[in-house]
Amino acid sequence: MPEAYIVDAVRTATGRRGGGFAGVHPADLGAAPIRALVERNDVDPEAIEDVVYGCIDAIGSQAGDIARTAALVAGLPESVPGVTIDRQCGSSQQAVHFAAQAVMSGTTDLVIAGGVQKMSQFPILSSFAAGEPYGAVDPWTGSKGWQARYGDQEISQFRSAETIAEEWGFSREDMERFALESHRRALTAREEGRFAREILVCEGVEHDEGPRADTTLEKMAGLKPLAPGGRLTAAVSSQISDASAAMLIASERAVKEHGLVPRARIHHLSVRGASPVNLLVAPLPATEHALRKAGLTIGDIDLAEVNEAFASVVLAWQKHIGADPARVNVNGGAIALGHPLGASGARIMTTLLHELERTGGRYGLQTMCEGGGQANVTIIERLG
């Protein structure tokens, strides 16, 4: 089967809600890594066959196929198309999958894949309420088919995160210690310059704005739970963020024709579904499926990235899969770095690639929980 190579990967820093990117148009934010990939790799823009971008809540200035708009803003020729996809939090990871699958099928040779999200402007679930005729903020209210299959069960990421913590026996203190470690790892990575190669300075924002040097377990303990009597607080949840990230995916033919140097190859890609009610648990069976399909064990994985939507998700994944916590989210995760929804998959994969290169690891695995009870899994193999 033809290979799909990662030639380059770049991201903006993650801006806090109301932070450095708050006044930036989503198309301008999304265009930045596209432009950088072309310039850094001296690629003929006419050779790019598609731009595949993830974005959730594609309304307002994020509507109208933001992938196409961002590509045009980046200065790509009008002949280069763009398509925006939504697999919820895994949208830009799925964008990479679609790009790689197109290359592996032999139908395209050079694709830019990534994502953009402007949560300062469009908070999570903004699109749920837009034009909702049933007076509710979810897309399944009023569906007879959904009612017949799932009844009146509450569909909530917060409920799922609480359920996972309860079922796996993680206390609030367990999750707070995990969250504190996420901040510590992110700050260490920033101080040691680990993010320097992957972050594109954009609109004057040079560093991720989320990591907090002043947070402590005592401060976390003083926060109110998100639900009365619950274990979740804002401290153990991902941060609302603005960011974009993109990767240049190429075939072997494109590598030769354009004189490109691949940095990694897509070793495995898959996506699986699980319960849409306990929706955040999907990365567990999805990872088991991916490792079986790839003929690998978790011991073969040098580094893993599991999106920190909530601390309980990563803690359950580590315990279930038997992963070494020292190899998981080594530079911190979304609790510290932020979770810009449609951009997170490409952001995480960009960080994973650079960290494999820094440490000399071979295999990196990435997964994340997604709305609807889904999870993408990607395994990349570092080259060189």
Report on the architecture of this protein:
This protein has helices at residues 26-41, 66-73, 91-105, 126-129, 144-150, 157-168, 172-191, 217-221, 252-258, 283-294, 311-321, 334-337, 344-359, and strands at 5-12, 15-16, 50-54, 82-85, 110-118, 199-200, 241-250, 264-273, 303-306, 363-370, 374-382. Helix 1 (26-41) packs across helix 2 (66-73), helix 3 (91-105) crosses helix 13 and helix 10 packs parallel to helix 11. Strands 1, 2, 3, 4, 5, 6, 7, 8, 9, 10 and 11 form an eleven-stranded mixed beta sheet that branches. It is built from 13 helices and eleven strands. The model has no long low-confidence stretch (mean pLDDT 96). With 384 residues, the protein is α/β, with parallel strands linked by helices. 36% of the residues lie in helices and 18% in strands. Residues 5-252 form the Thiolase N-terminal domain. This is Beta-ketoadipyl-CoA thiolase. InterPro entries: Thiolase (IPR002155), Thiolase-like (IPR016039), Thiolase_C (IPR020617), Thiolase_CS (IPR020613), Thiolase_N (IPR020616). Residues 262-382 form the Thiolase C-terminal domain. Keywords: Acyltransferase, Transferase.
